[in-house]
Design brief:
single chain, alpha/beta, 2 domains, 9 helices, 41% strand
């Protein structure tokens, strides 16, 4: 379903915002934003492209853009290393799309932003926008690139110490749209654990962000994400990961709250012996919506990928998962699995799934599965017969359903936080 919208009005607002931001962007980076705008303009809001805009909250975006017209983005340059009691060590804070605080980073982690005119940053985002042509499938990637006020690049070098953990607080505290853009450049044999909290403090906010990552030979990137708030209009992420030779990517997410959440994720396994593990848990209530569009491309031999989605649906909420696994002709000895489980607590809740396997090589093992169900009456009866109140029995069965995804998280703090957030 594509929401009807005044296309000309929306594009005019985009263009005005792009022009207003263009004057504040350094020349080295401006070529990227201009290219991104050009590519977005070619696709624009062609609503016949239902896959690109399905479920998209155009009315929320239109209202948020109008609110954003009177908001001035911060222009300060953030320095590293200043003590700040509000920010933990080895952490960064991003507010309304702009880098706000950096605190005591490990020696092997470097954070730069567009206002430094860093050549590595410019080259990194230039490559993703101008040379990763598959991104053209998603016009939101280019829209974000043309309107982002401050791109941030996180470079990670190899270290003999244990894998460092970087904490990122991604906050939207102003009405309107924020456009954060974050790149992860994991160098050869480097590793990084990332804990991301996404929150909003304004019920008129809409966050549309890009996450890009390149994980080079024998590199490792583990990302844990928690999105939990009841304020935001919506959270919309476009994620793109390139996983090279013998590299590893693990992406874990938990979402609860917000009126509209959408995650578009594209993962390319470009070299042999790479591994990808994606796990998401969502809890939706009221009229909230949660949508996942994921494309997993096996481009080389001997690669493994796994996807697990578990959804808890209450009231009149709506969840969808569209998952495509593409195995290219040369990608022999591929292993891929995908499982989507939906647990309903209301007859009015809706779930839609669309698993899709495109296999161009015979020497593979690929499978997928989908389930729709309610709490098992026998299990509930058994717990109640042992003296548990019905509310506690439901709580235990719910956490049991969610536990497999929760245990995938690297962060023990996040595991504990999710379990508390699941309390019904």
């Amino acid at each position: 379903m594509v929401e009807m919208v005044n296309e000309n009005e929306l594009v005019d607002l985009f263009l005005n915002e792009h022009k207003a931001l263009s004057d504040s962007i350094l020349n080295d980076y401006k070529s990227i934003t201009e290219f991104a705008w050009e590519q977005f303009s070619k696709s624009s809001l062609d609503l016949n492209r239902a896959e690109s805009w399905r479920y998209f909250p155009f009315s929320k975006l239109l209202n948020s853009l109008k609110d954003y017209a009177n908001y001035e983005a911060p222009t300060k340059i953030v320095e590293v290393g200043e003590e700040d009691s509000e920010v933990a060590n080895n952490s960064i804070k991003i507010v309304s799309g702009c880098l706000d605080k950096i605190n005591q980073l490990n020696d092997n982690i470097e954070v730069t932003q567009t206002r430094y005119a860093d050549k590595n940053l410019v080259n990194f985002f230039d490559h993703f926008f101008k040379h990763e042509q598959e991104s053209a499938k998603n016009p939101l990637v280019f829209l974000n690139g043309s309107l982002s006020t401050s791109a941030i690049l996180i470079n990670v070098k190899p270290s003999e110490e244990k894998i460092p953990t970087l904490k990122i607080n991604l906050l939207s505290n102003e009405p309107g749209v924020s456009w954060p853009m974050i790149g992860f450049n994991i160098l050869e044999k480097a590793s990084l654990n990332v804990e991301i909290h996404v929150n909003s403090e304004d019920d008129k906010s809409l966050l549309i962000g890009n996450f890009f990552a390149k994980i080079k030979t024998q590199g490792e990137l583990n990302i844990d994400i928690i999105q939990c708030d009841n304020h935001s209009n919506g959270i919309i992420f476009q994620n793109r990961f390139v996983v090279e030779n013998a590299a590893h990517l693990k992406l874990n997410g938990f979402c609860r709250g917000g009126q509209f959440n959408r995650f578009d994720t594209e993962i390319l396994m470009t070299n042999e012996n790479s591994n990808v593990d994606v796990n998401f848990l969502s809890l939706t209530k009221g009229n909230s919506q949660q949508h996942h569009f994921i494309n997993m491309s096996h481009d080389a031999p001997n690669c493994n990928s796994s996807q697990l989605f578990r959804n808890l649906l209450f009231d009149k909420s709506n969840v969808s998962v569209d998952g495509t696994v593409l195995v290219q002709k040369g990608a022999s000895q591929t292993f891929s699995e995908q499982l989507i489980n939906n647990l309903f607590f209301s007859e009015e809740a809706k779930a839609s799934t669309k698993p899709n396997l495109q296999i161009l090589n015979d020497d593979v093992k690929c499978n997928h599965g989908v389930t729709f169900g309610q709490l098992e009456e026998e299990s509930l009866f058994y717990l109640k017969s042992r003296g548990l109140p019905e509310e506690l029995a439901i709580d235990l069965l719910t956490k049991s359903f969610a536990s497999e995804v929760i245990e995938k998280f690297h962060s023990e703090e996040m595991k504990t936080e999710i379990k508390k957030l699941l309390e019904l």
